[in-house]
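Sequence and fold:
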Amino acid sequence: QVQLVESGGGLVQPGGSLRLSCAASGFTLDYYAMAWFHQAPGKEREVVSCISSKDGSTWYPDSAKGRFTASRDIAGNTMYLQMNSLKSEDTGLYYCVAERSLGICPQGYDYWGQGTQVTVSS
């Protein structure tokens, strides 16, 4: 079955960097649109990056543009999120998600990982 397992979260100081990983199993990345969602404490989940299944192209909201970079390793069936210049508002759970789709940023996602905690604090 489809499984997504995130790793790489932790405690980092403001301005620091983290690299999240998402190991996928039960499917191959080139048939699934992937994304990373962020859920800050007490807030709704919001997408912070999308990767197209077809060509690996990416999309970011303004809050992540220039700071976050999503990538994927088709052979390793793994997706990554490089986060730089981290801010306190980036604190929260980060979820790896997948949806069988040929596009990018589909309306909904059927598969979610368990989340990895990122805390940005001095």
Notes: The chain has no helices and eleven strands. The radius of gyration is 13 Å. The chain has a mean pLDDT of 95. The longest strand covers residues 92-100.
